[in-house]
Amino acid sequence: MKRFTQKSWFGKKSVGYGPAPATWQGWIITFLLILTIILDFLHFRISITSIIIFIIALIVFFVITILTGWNLE
Hints:
Layout: E1 10-12, E2 19-21, H1 24-44, H2 48-67
Antiparallel strand pairs: 1-2
Helix pairs in contact: 1-2
């Protein structure tokens, strides 16, 4: 897949699975994901709406990590 940035925003974790922020841009995207999830569950509690927003936020997060060159090496 085509990469949209010069440097990978996310790298491989030393422990566990998934992307780990490698640059300040990666940290901002991760912070926005966490903020979205917290505000979602505070506002909607546990409902179908909160679950849908949670799933959409995760999909958007992983699309961004892939498009910005998630470095798995």
